[in-house]
Specification:
It is a single chain. By secondary structure, the chain is an alpha/beta fold. 49% of the residues lie in helices and 11% in strands. It has 2 domains: 49-275, no CATH class; 289-665, Alkaline Phosphatase, subunit A (3-Layer(aba) Sandwich). It is built from 24 helices and 13 strands. A hairpin with a 4-residue loop joins strand 12 (624-629) and strand 13 (634-638). The longest helix is centred in the N-terminal third of the chain and has 54 residues, at 21-74.
Length: 666
């Protein structure tokens, strides 16, 4: 029997058994050949499976680089200070984190490939493609959202988006039609190209599996085990003790370049994990209470009483204007540069301006709870979203109620965002109103009614109120999409032109409001407190990791302000959380129940401000500041000397530890 004949015989009749002694010798030579042919079939399937797994990693790296190109095109004005060489380096330094993310995204497809190896069929091949396509869609949605959000937020997409998604109508109205269209375009482009690459990389080809089940399954388990372990090692960036993190993609002093380099899917996923982590304290050092208080000895041991009283009466009416996104960086009377608020600058000449105040966070709900509750912010925590906790904390209106004040809060948009409306109702505001309470015949933007109409309605509300009162208004025209009416508003050019122009419009509306208030009988006994809810990128500063990004104005204005304080500037360093205690001391109230607030008029009070950044926190004192990124384990902003940093880091962590321990017990 020739070799060829024997091969043909073996393939078609390998179950036949020979019985002669001579044929046993032949049979002994036939078995290896038969098994070898099966082995070739098996190896072909194994080879294609292994090749697909390597192609998966390459596929995702290409998809991620495509996303970077689209991001760069849409946000090219953000890269004006970055050379072509530095831009290209983003595609180099991103590789390790891209590979780690690709490995994470390849776990489910690995399972599908393993199942296909055991049972190669049309359906198992399709399941693999379906799983991969779903991942493509998710990645496209994450990055499509990031491309558009970055224009406004100046940082990568995080779980902050979940706060917005709780109110879909707010998302639609906040984003202009252009943003929604571009989101759809970029998502479609990425899904289309991802699908095209999927078809090219993984054509639907059904292969035969000649081995029996007893051999297939162990081989499949071996395939899954080897590559599962390999993907796990890639996902953690290697076998080193500390797993890979976003700092592996950092390479530039320009935050935009680093944001481009950091993988968007990885960043968003990490943000999601922290968002759902109940023990956020694990992200920063926890210091024992006794040790923390020792480090903060001067924070708690200083004279509380002083004679710096700026009110001529202890029971004035109060009007609080919370100004959306009014960054101090756009106010000339604070920066000394050309600003967008000429009328506000004129008001500072008649009021008491606090020039060194910082927002506690980057969102409106955090700003409002700090302003009225005297409560600082912790990373990744919005106290207004947790009624079971914030209801146990004091609020300014509750102190005023003891003296017969009524309290009113009105917003020109939707107060469901960040549970702001719920927060104020839980704390006993007599009236809480939003866009649903505005006259329906008023013109309206996508997000809210215009500032000019908000102020007109506010005056009507005040006129219908018997004193004493605290009326609060939250503006909205300085929030994207900046669709305020064009009333000869100054048109800025260059970076953040739309926002700067909106501030100019809001400033004009504020001036008209004050002028109209002066005509009312209650004006003479009313103090106006004007403060921003948080900072914003301006023509002068865009990096959301810098302390200056959180710099906000605070102006106290009105007839009850003593003449000797009019036109004065207070440079005490503090945060929004210090406003309540400052006002209560002036009014003779129980200011000491606000444990986390300090009196900005007290010359002896410690000067510091704690604020949160995206995925981290910051600390500011008269000697300097730092901000710390919890994921990157680095300092995006640092002006302290090494010796100062050691001291201030200990004080910051001590303060956060005490704050977090109380937060957990609320």
């Amino acid at each position: 029997m020739t070799f060829v004949t024997h091969c043909a015989f073996s393939i078609n009749n390998y179950k036949l058994i020979t019985h002669s002694a001579a044929s046993v010798i032949i049979h002994n030579s036939y078995l290896p050949i038969d098994n070898f042919l099966k082995y070739l079939y098996q190896m072909q399937l194994m080879k294609s499976s292994i090749l697909n797994l390597f192609k998966l990693l390459l596929f995702w790296v290409l998809v991620f680089d495509l996303q970077r190109i689209l991001f760069s095109i849409h946000n090219w004005d953000k890269f004006k200070d970055i050379s072509w060489g530095d831009w290209f380096l983003a595609f180099v330094y991103s590789f390790r984190l891209d590979l780690a993310t690709a490995a994470l995204l390849s776990f489910l497809p690995l399972l599908m490939i393993t199942i296909y190896f055991v049972w190669p069929s049309k359906w198992t091949a399709r399941f693999f493609k379906i799983v991969l396509f779903i991942e493509i869609i998710i990645a496209a949605f994450i990055h499509g959202g990031e491309i558009n959000a970055y224009t406004e937020w100046n940082h990568k997409l995080t779980t902050r988006v979940f706060t917005h998604l709780l109110n879909p109508d707010e998302v639609v109205r906040t984003a202009d039609y252009g943003m929604m269209i571009w989101f759809a375009i970029y998502a479609f482009i990425e899904i289309f190209i991802g699908y095209y690459l999927q078809r090219k990389f993984f054509p639907l080809k059904i292969e035969k599996q000649p081995l029996n089940w007893f051999i297939r399954i162990p081989a499949a388990l071996l395939l899954f085990g080897v590559f599962g372990c390999g993907f796990l090692i890639l996902a953690r960036g290697g076998t080193q003790q500390i797993p890979i993190n976003i700092d592996s993609a950092y390479y530039s002093k320009e935050y935009v370049a680093n944001d481009l380099s950091v993988n968007s899917v990885y960043f968003f996923s990490k943000s999601f994990l922290l968002y759902n982590r109940s023990q956020i304290g694990a992200q920063f050092p926890i210091i024992a209470e006794e040790e923390a208080k020792k480090a903060l000895y001067d924070f708690y041991n200083y004279p509380l009483e002083h004679d710096s009283l700026f009110l001529s009466t202890q029971r004035p009416n109060i009007v609080v204007i919370v100004m959306e996104s009014w960054t101090a960086n756009a106010i000339g009377s604070i920066t000394g540069k050309e600003g967008a608020t000429p009328y506000f600058d004129q008001l500072t000449k008649e009021g008491l301006l606090f020039t060194n105040l910082y927002a506690t966070g980057g969102t409106s709900e955090i700003g409002n709870s700090s302003i009225f509750g005297g409560y600082p912010a912790l990373p990744e925590i919005s106290i207004s979203m947790q009624p079971d906790k914030h209801r146990k904390l004091p609020s300014f209106n509750q102190d005023l109620k003891k003296w017969g004040y009524t309290s009113h809060y009105i917003f020109s948009g939707d107060l469901k965002y960040g549970n702001i409306g719920g927060y104020f109702m839980d704390h006993g505001f007599d009236v809480v109103e939003d866009e649903n309470d505005f006259p329906k015949n008023l013109p309206k933007g996508k997000l809210n009614y215009y500032d000019e109409d908000l102020y007109k309605l506010l005056i009507k509300k005040i006129n219908a109120t018997k004193g004493p009162f605290m009326h609060c208004a939250f503006t909205g025209s300085t929030h994207s999409p900046y669709d305020y009416p064009d009333r000869g508003t100054k048109k800025w050019k260059g970076t953040e032109a739309d926002f700067m122009s909106s501030m100019y419009y809001g400033d004009k509306c504020l001036n008209d409001f004050i002028n109209n208030c002066k005509k009312e009988s209650w004006y003479k006994n009313t103090i106006f407190v004007m403060v921003a809810d948080h900072g914003h990128a301006s023509s002068y500063l865009q990096n959301p990791n810098l302390a200056g990004y959180f710099h906000v104005p605070l102006l106290i204005f009105g007839e009850p302000l003593k003449k000797e304080y009019r036109g004065k500037r207070n440079s005490t360093l503090g945060s929004q959380a210090d406003i309540v205690r400052t006002l209560l001391y002036q009014m003779g109230g129980d200011y000491q129940r606000y444990n986390w607030s300090k009196d900005l008029m007290n010359p002896a009070c410690p000067q510091f401000a704690l604020h949160t950044i995206n995925r981290g926190y910051g600390w500011i004192t008269p000697d300097g500041n730092f901000s710390y990124h919890m994921d990157g384990k680095n300092y995006p902003d640092l002006t302290y000397t090494p010796k100062q940093l050691k001291i201030e880091r200990k004080r910051c962590h001590s303060y956060m530890s005490l704050l977090y321990q109380e937060y957990k017990t609320l």
